[in-house]
Design brief:
By secondary structure, the chain is of the alpha/beta class. The protein has two domains: 90-262, TIM Barrel; 268-388, Lyase, Ornithine Decarboxylase, Chain A, domain 1. 30% of the residues lie in helices and 24% in strands. Helix 4 links the parallel strand 3 (65-68) and strand 4. The longest helix is centred in the middle third of the chain and has 20 residues, at 195-214. Bound molecules: pyridoxal-5'-phosphate. Pyridoxal-5'-phosphate binds next to helix 10. Residues 46, 48-49, 67, 90, 187, 190, 225-228, 261-265, 357 line the site of pyridoxal-5'-phosphate.
């Protein structure tokens, strides 16, 4: 990782652990800034992809805004020194307490996802004597061509408000005393590798924005959400320059500022999960490498049958064999990689690649497994940015009943 051998990371901090590259994160963030430069975008990093405080601070120092989906994520952003004035608050289930927290912090915009939420937000803001800046998350009914669990912009999705209902809801928002209408928002899904769905969504959203302007509800920004995919295996990710080239001419002259909410594209390829082979379990019926990382550390393969490249830290001589890389958790679905061709011995280190997004942040303590350490590498420097949990951490909030 950059100039630090992964064997040294394992030696210093043990396995399993997440290892991130600061340079890769800076590069990926800057790519958005550069590609969309003519539109002077606000790039709001989606905290749910990886909310580690050090990564948030690194991004805040680059000028990033943040897309949050809970009060907990807002607290993380503030603890990391993020600017609340650059925070957009998404999510279908914002509680009144979370609204109060975000209003007091002074977030830039609430991305509202339902009529009921709109009314509650107005009421909560009025009680505080404030006005909530809002945008409606509109569902453009565009198929992003991605895994059904991460498609979010279809009609039957739980996210956003239906395109055909949005105009009337904006009229209501404009009348509600606790609200100030500032924008429009969509987020059609994740790991999207085709430009067409983004363009289709943009055109529908722009049409609605101009209808709103004609109807006396001018907006100041358009938020295109996140969802830009990365290469895990053999995907061809969208070139951000192409994305920007599609957006710029359509947005110019609209008077709308641009917000983006990338998560995966900023941290996904910047991180890996480092793990050690515990056992080789090979018989005529099965061929397994049992490693010390598991589905509780990285759930994407079990949850979405996602592919993560798995490479040995040191290449070993000898014929590779085809095996499944599995973890110690008591679930048949605890598979990190199926049918991989690897030459391995017990004790070898493996790097599970592209694990920077939705890895650590989706981790759990299933099977009473402490969460792994997280390490940030920057050039020749390696820094522990989250210590490995201890078993005592796991039952800190419990006690055997008296
Ligand atoms: C998850 C999410 C994002 C980030 O998605 P990526 O695919 O990681 O870029 C952005 N906006 C919203 C509303 C989200 O729910």
């Amino acid at each position: 990782m950059e100039s630090v051998p992964l064997a040294e990371v394992a030696q210093a901090h043990g396995t399993p652990c997440y290892v991130y590259s600061a340079a890769a994160i800076r590069h990926a963030y800057t790519e958005f800034e550069v590609a969309f430069a003519t539109l002077d975008p606000l790039v709001c990093y989606a905290v749910k992809a990886n909310g580690n405080l050090s990564l948030l601070r690194l991004l805040a120092r680059l000028g990033a805004g943040f897309d949050i989906v809970s009060g907990g994520e807002l607290s993380r952003v503030l603890a990391a020194g993020g600017d609340p004035g650059k925070v957009v608050f998404s999510g279908v289930g914002k509680s009144a307490a979370e609204m109060v927290q975000a209003l007091r912090a002074g977030v830039r915009c609430f991305n509202v996802e339902s009529p009921a939420e709109l009314r509650r937000l107005s009421r909560v803001a009025c009680e505080l004597g404030l006005q909530a800046p809002v945008s409606l998350r509109v569902n453009p009914d565009v198929d992003p061509g991605t895994h059904p669990y991460i498609a979010t912009g279809l009609k039957d999705s739980k996210f956003g408000v239906a395109y055909d209902d949005a105009f009337a809801l904006y009229q209501e928002a404009a009348r509600l005393p606790g609200l100030r209408v500032v924008g429009i928002d969509c987020h059609i899904g994740s790991q999207i590798t085709d430009l067409d769905p983004f363009v289709a969504a943009l055109e529908k959203i722009l049409e609605l924005a101009s209808k709103l302007r004609r109807g006396g509800i001018p907006l100041s920004h358009l938020d295109l959400g996140g969802g830009v995919g990365i290469r895990y295996r053999n995907e061809t990710p969208i070139a951000l320059a192409d994305y920007a080239r599609a957006v710029a001419p359509r947005l110019e002259g609209s008077g709308l500022g641009l917000l983006l909410e990338p998560g995966r594209r900023i941290v996904g390829n910047a991180g890996l999960l480092l793990t050690r082979v515990e056992y080789l379990k090979i018989s005529p019926e099965h061929r397994f490498a049992v490693v010390d990382a598991a589905m509780n550390d990285l759930i994407r393969p079990s949850l979405y049958e996602a592919w993560h490249e798995i490479v040995p830290v040191r290449e070993r001589q000898g014929a590779p064999s085809v095996l499944d890389v599995v973890g110690p958790v008591c679930e048949t679905g605890d598979i990190l990689g199926r049918g991989r061709s690897l030459a391995l011995a017990e004790g070898d280190l493996l790097a599970i690649l592209s694990a920077g997004a939705y890895g650590a942040s989706m981790g759990s303590n299933y099977n009473a497994r402490p969460r792994p350490a997280e390490i940030l590498v920057d050039g020749q420097a390696m820094q522990l940015i989250r210590r490995r949990e201890t078993v005592e951490d796991l039952f800190r909030n419990e006690w055997p009943m008296p």
